[in-house]
What we know:
With 345 residues, the chain is α/β, with parallel strands linked by helices. It folds into two domains: 2-126, NAD(P)-binding Rossmann-like Domain (Rossmann fold); 151-313, Dihydrodipicolinate Reductase, domain 2 (2-Layer Sandwich), CATH 3.30.360. The chain is built from ten helices and 14 strands. It has helices spanning 12-22, 42-45, 62-68, 80-90, 107-114, 150-164, 194-197, 212-223, 256-266, 315-330; strands spanning 2-7, 27-33, 57-58, 71-74, 94-97, 128-129, 144-146, 172-179, 202-203, 228-235, 242-249, 273-275, 293-299, 304-311. The protein is globular, with a radius of gyration of 20 Å. It starts with a strand and ends in a 15-residue tail after the last helix.
Amino acid sequence: MTKVAIIGAPGYAGIELTRLILGHPELQLTMVTSAAEAGKRVDDVYPILSGHTDLSYVEPDVAAIAKAAEIAFLGVPHTAALKLAPALLAAGLTVIDASADYRLKDPEVYEAWYGVPHTSSHLLASAVYGLPELSREGLAGASLVACPGCYPTASLLAAVPAIEAGLVAGDKIIVDAKSGVSGAGRSPGAGTHYPTVNESLQPYRVGSHRHTPEIEQGLALAAGRVLRVVFTPHLVPMTRGLLSTVYMDASTEISSAELVQIYRERYADEPFVRVHDAGRMPSTAEVRGTNRAHIGVSVDPAGTIVAVCAIDNLVKGTAGQAVQCANLVLGIDETSGLDHPVPVV
């Protein structure tokens, strides 16, 4: 069993990690940290885990974490990982970072979008971007994994097969995405207060969402050229789930059935990706609580490729993907601890 610590464990991503690791056959959860919840039992903060763990949250301390664990999952906000990751790596731990701090390869782009200097940019070259379905290169034995954001995960999974196949014309791609309120995190705020979001649908951070450069970075890697993204995220009145609809101008005439076949061939060996039949689109309900990504593709009469990907923003969009990456780092079955049924209603 590989010993694991979760740093920033009481957040929504952290508690999903807690749930998944407690059920993992080859990972042992030995420490959960939180400055705000230190001293409280996990099952007092989240009673649903009663009977599954007797751990309590403790103050984050690098030396203590290094004694208790071999892998540290970071469920902390962006910028917090800039301080933690270098110290944890120096202490000999493998770091699986769910924040944005090591996703962007250019520190100047990070600084422009996040508004702070990147204080450990020397680690960017060795950080492995953890979206296994697009590239597993470097994950085996990696010491630092930068897990993708939820919007980039769904958007890239939807777009990349068409781009790789040379089917996309022009240099602009439109991404229209919608996420449940849990994507905003556990801390309450006016914009995520129940009366504000209930019975309402609204775009937010139009033209300025920080996942934009991450999506563009992934698209450019697939295309071998710069692609620009018009990215509009929306907040929808549901707890979890994310749906990304990507619009791309087709470079050649192609049918929806042919496009489905291209996507199925691209993801044929991917255990967590399902490509629906032509004419069928995915829903967030069908992937809720899972590490799966369901994709539907179509070509409209105007020659536009429409690719839709549904994921659970807290699992495939965060915690489940982190566990999938950890499995690959350790050289075990990447589905370990993740391939299980969940309640259907």
